[in-house]
Amino acid sequence: MKLSTRSRYGVRALLELAIDYDKGPLQIKTIAEREKISNKYLEQLIAILKASGLVTSVRGPKGGYMLSRQPKDIHLSEVFKVLEGPITVFDCLVDKDACTRCGDCLTKKIWVNMQDAINKVLDSVTLQDMANDAGKHKESTKN
Predict the structure, then answer these.
(1) 64-76 residue pLDDT tens
(2) 25: closest CA among 61, 68, 58, 3?
(3) What's the gap between Cα 65 and its chain centre?
(4) What gap in Å lies between CA 67 and CA 131, rounded to an integer?
(5) pLDDT, tens only, 80-103
(6) Taking the model in full, what pTM does it have?
(7) Nearest-angstrom CA–CA distance, 18 and 91
(8) Nearest Cα residue to 14 out of 29, 36, 35
(9) What burial class does residue 134 get, using C-beta atoms within 10 Å of its C-beta: 0-12 exposed, 13-18 middle, 19+ buried?
(10) Nearest of 38, 1, 34, 2 to residue 15 by alpha carbon
(11) Which range marks the domain in which residue 69 is found?
């Protein structure tokens, strides 16, 4: 399974907003420069994140974008649902008609367990957790 750049870049952009949460809004240009994402693509991602209610905009010369809630209240599962839709390992796990062998599939239990494990990880990690890890990483690379 391979996630799209939409999710990878979207999570990185949200992480920047989480890291600077108490410092006020960030401009797209700043996020794009820090994360080496094109402004144009980042604008599209921010529009999706804003429409979903994860991000809010602030107008004016010191305006930009910020998280609509505290980073501790935003789980990766919510972010992935916004950017990718529901995480499904195989279509047959959500649509019984997707496979003719769905009723007697000997491997289905493995796929269910794999999907559950992915969802468990995404449900357990918040943007605050990631921001904390980023801070620890930054400190460890200074020494």
Answers:
(1) 999 999 999 999 9
(2) 58
(3) 16
(4) 13
(5) 999 998 888 888 888 888 888 877
(6) 0.87
(7) 33
(8) 35
(9) middle
(10) 34
(11) 5-142
Structure tokens at 101: 């062998």
Q: Is 15 exposed, middle or buried (0-12, 13-18, 19+ CB in 10 A)?
A: buried
Rounded Cα distance, 30 and 51, in Å: 21
Instruction: Specify burial of residue 143 (Cβ count, 10 A radius: 0-12, 13-18, 19+).
Output: exposed
User: For residues 137 and 25, is the Cβ–Cβ distance under 8 A?
Assistant: no
- CATH number for the domain spanning 138: value is 1.10.10.10
Only one residue has tokens 């990878």, namely: 8
Number of domains, the chain: 1
Residue pair 13/2 in contact (Cβ under 8 Å)? The answer is no
Q: At 57, list the tokens.
A: 């905009």
What is the rounded CA–CA span in Å between residue 13 and residue 30? 10
Distance CA 36, CA 9 (A): 9
Q: Closest Cα to residue 124, out of 78, 86, 75?
A: 75
List Cα–Cα distances, 98 to 26, 50, 55, in angstroms.
Answer: 43, 33, 35
Assigned token pair, 53: 């209610």
At position 45, the amino acid (one-letter code) is L
